[in-house]
Specification:
Oligomer: single chain
Number of helices: 1
Distance between the termini: 144 Å
Helix content: 25-40%
Structural class: alpha+beta
Length: about 325
Amino acid sequence: MIIPGRILDTVLLLPLVLSVADSTSLCPDERQMTQNNSLPLAEANTTVLVQMGTQAVLCCPRLSSKEVMLTTWEIILTNKIPCKISYKTSTNETMKNNCTDGRISWASRPDQSLDLQIDVLATIHEGYYKCEVAEPNGNYYLGYNLQVLVPPKVSLSLDKNRTVVCEAISGKPAARISWFPEWGCVTETESPSNDTRTVRSTCHCSDSNITVVTCLISHLTGNKNLSIALPSGAQTEKSYVKYIISSIIILIVMGIICFLKSSSFRKCKSENPDTTTVVEEDEMQPYASYTEKSNTLYDTADSLRMLQLSGSEAYHVGLPTSPVTGI
């Protein structure tokens, strides 16, 4: 990012500066900041990478304190109103405009040092920081594109069937994962939040001769190596056999339970027809009694009819007849 101002013939873009110490100064080499061994360059910008949670000190152009009239730090953070911190040498007066973050302040007394200090860096401190120094010969700038690094949380786990998963969680920027020995793996990158990245690499080792694998995690905040032992092919086969045997035992137990329930159901069902038969016989009993009574009446009528017929036949043949009694 180039800031307009008094620009000399040479503009220096300083190289990348990486800082991971607990407290460090990100000031460029003073020899790089001068031209013709006399005055600092009119403009210089550098990109700095600082690990989250550390402290950073940003420097102004090196000029004689007697020549400096006004020093202004302009801070442009992402999605925030620009902030300005100024110091006027002649009156020893400091001023702040829209600066509310207490972690950003002078590194020391401004009459002793014009450097800016940021305590406990967080991702919200990412942005552009520019120091402008005004002196009788003109204005000089020194700018920093500050980027905050977030170290990832790493893990290595063993899944079933000799499958290994290596993760670098919530890192900024995204970590890089490689394996030793090298083998076919599937790597995915996710974006959880806060511009961080989660990288997950999954590998399945079918070669039973490989007993140990190592996950190599590369990141700007530092590299890490994680190793894990793989079960042998015999152990994997043994585990598979145990799984099959356990499944068969479970199926047999379930079959026995189902058989016992089915037998109990058939037994209950076989008892129901006997009860129904008894009820039917009880219901038919009155009809059976009525049939027997009806047969007795029919028998009496038949007897009378036979007696009458016998008397009539006797009368026709001239045989004496006797009166019928007892009817």
